[in-house]
Design a protein that fits this description.
Elements lengths: L1 E5 L4 H8 L6 E4 L3 H6 L4 E5 L8 E4 L2 E5 L4 H6 L5 H10 L2 H4 L4 H7 L5 H8 L3 E5 L3 E4 H4 L11 E8 L3 E7 L9 E7 L5 E6 L6 E6 L5 H8 L10 H22 L1
Parallel strand pairs: 1-3, 2-3
Antiparallel strand pairs: 4-5, 5-8, 6-7, 6-8, 9-10, 10-11, 11-12
């Protein structure tokens, strides 16, 4: 139950409210997560008036404000095309304007193509107060007990890398049971992330090149079994999707 609603006009006021212990106070982006998941009594801080919906390029780095909506991300050509495609596939029209990037990062599970793509991109979260940068891969396993920052200000991703992503679902309307994403930098650095299972996507490989990335993906999902797919299936699909993606990326060079 929402006990209090606040719409601060400054980041300072928002952070002061979020620092309270009584009542427990949570940030409110689009509201899709809080409306579905929060069962306890809380106060909420509406972030819409804080100017956190920007998208900016700083040299080889792209910065996306935590309040950027999925509609904006899909429409902005500064965002990597494959990331926009992942967002478009994951979010139906009725949720795109409601859902913020920060809210998605805080609440999406392992079957999220968006989170899987961001993990492959080695996304970094800028936290307030302090503007500390934290790797998305370090945040995801700890997010339900996170205490190193009160508010995601923005998300940093490379603007000079190439991203490719593939997914498999039981039907076109189902959520994916297997997602593979690959990001490659001009230096050859290659990161592979896998989704479709569990509470968060995982990093399967991060190396100076793509050597062994397909085998690493297969091994990473050896135990990834749930009611939607067997571990054997996911492990083999991880291997095949990563090989396909590597072939596609090599053909485009």
């Amino acid at each position: 139950m929402i006990l209090e609603y606040h719409r601060p006009a400054s980041l300072e006021e928002a952070l002061r409210l979020l620092a309270r212990n009584q009542p427990k106070t949570l940030p409110l982006g689009g509201g899709t997560y809080l409306s579905r998941k929060v069962m306890e009594d809380v106060a909420v801080v509406d972030l819409q008036a804080l100017g956190l919906d920007f998208i900016q390029i700083h040299g080889s780095q792209l910065e996306i404000g935590a309040m950027a909506r999925m509609t904006t991300i899909i429409q902005d050509n500064a965002i990597p095309a494959m990331l926009r495609s992942a967002v478009e596939a994951e979010y139906p029209l009725n949720l795109r304007e409601m859902t913020s990037l920060g809210g998605a990062i805080a609440s999406n599970d392992g079957r999220s193509a968006l989170l899987t793509a961001l993990l492959a991109l080695d996304a970094r979260l800028v936290w307030l107060p302090g503007e500390n940068e934290v790797a998305l891969g370090n945040y995801l396993p700890l997010r339900h007990a996170w205490n190193e920052g009160k508010l995601i200000r923005s998300v940093l991703i490379p603007a000079n890398s190439r991203l490719a992503i593939e997914s498999v679902a039981r039907t076109p309307l189902d959520r994916p049971v297997m997602i593979a994403a690959i990001c490659q930098w001009p230096s050859g650095r290659t990161r592979v992330s896998l989704g479709g299972f569990g509470q968060a996507p995982i990093l399967a490989a991060d190396g100076p090149d793509a050597t062994g990335a397909d085998l690493a993906a297969r091994n990473a999902y050896l135990l990834a079994e749930d009611e939607w797919a067997s571990a054997e299936y996911r492990s083999q699909m991880a291997y095949e999707l990563v090989r396909k993606l590597l072939h596609t990326m090599k053909a485009r060079t």
